[in-house]
Design goal:
The chain is α/β, with parallel strands linked by helices. It has nine helices and eleven strands. The relative contact order is 0.14.
Length: about 290
């Protein structure tokens, strides 16, 4: 294959929030190299809120991961009317391989055999050169290299929408700084302890006169941590759990500091250029 960005490119990177965030520098690099490219991103609901209105992405095609066989029938029908010149399968999971197989493209790039899993290489025509496991942003940018695209300067282009900024202003009125606490990951072994969250929140409120805003979902772990924090600092903690991905972006954008375990909003905060403290216990930070 001759390097270069063709007319129509598709990215297959369907989940999760952190992974989709990690894929943004590739999309912005492709757009910078070929401003008139038509870039389609195949994605699931939830992470798609990071891509809505993104300047590098022309079109989203949604995959319903809970739809079973019907989801593959549906996406096959929608992809049948969308021919691509190149498909970039950034994931290694079986579902991404199956969706890649359903795309209409003569060239389908994927991860090399040494790093792929779930027989993902069966569904691609070309694979990246073998390489050691590295940070996911760097791994995704290997696809830029095969297209002859310069990934520098590395930019995410991630910004909240207008509605998210209005939500953030209404949830945390005024201009005083606050710290966003992202209380849990979807993987329980990555989570911190409620009493320690409460201790940190109390320190921020009592010693630094900062408010804390609780960001994330409504899982039992998040609710437990929120209860412990509220018991310590009362109204100085603003509970914004369950606000959704888009609104969380608005809250993170305004935060003076973000503290989080290895989970999507941590990486979103990095992409927004916010100061971040990452609580890493079980995950290798060289990878994420």
């Amino acid at each position: 294959m001759t390097p270069g960005v063709p007319d129509r490119v598709a990215i297959v990177l369907m989940s999760a929030l952190g992974d989709v965030t990690f894929g943004l520098p590739l999309a912005t690099a492709i757009r910078r190299a070929r401003p008139d490219v038509h870039l389609t991103w195949i994605v699931q609901r939830g992470p798609d809120e990071l891509l809505a209105g993104h300047p590098a992405v022309n079109e989203l095609v949604h995959f319903d991961r809970k739809g079973g066989i019907a989801a593959y029938v549906d996406i096959r029908r929608r992809l049948a009317t969308r021919p691509f010149d190149v498909v970039l399968d950034l994931q290694t999971a079986l579902k991404a391989g199956l969706v890649t197989a359903l795309t209409r493209a003569p060239i389908k790039w994927g991860i090399d055999r040494t790093r792929a899993r779930d027989a993902n290489t069966w569904f691609t025509t070309h694979q990246l050169p073998p390489a050691p496991r590295r940070h996911m942003v760097d791994q995704f940018l290997e696809f830029a290299a095969v297209l002859g695209v310069n990934p520098e300067p590395l930019t995410y282009g991630l910004r909240p929408g207008d509605a998210a900024r209005v939500y953030a202003s209404g949830t945390v009125p005024g201009a005083d700084p606050y710290v966003a606490l992202v209380l849990a990951s979807s993987a329980a072994h990555k989570n911190w302890f409620p009493d320690r969250w409460a201790e940190v929140a109390e320190h921020l409120v009592r010693e630094h006169r900062l408010r804390v805003v609780l960001v994330g979902g409504t899982s039992e772990a998040e609710r437990s941590a929120a209860s412990a924090i509220t018991a310590r600092v009362g109204a100085s903690a603003i509970n914004a759990l369950g606000s959704g991905v888009g609104n969380a972006l608005g809250l993170l954008e305004r935060a003076a500091l973000v503290i989080a375990p290895d989970t999507g909003p941590l990486h979103m905060a990095v992409a927004l250029g916010r100061p971040v403290i990452g609580l890493y216990g079980s995950t290798n930070p060289k990878w994420v």
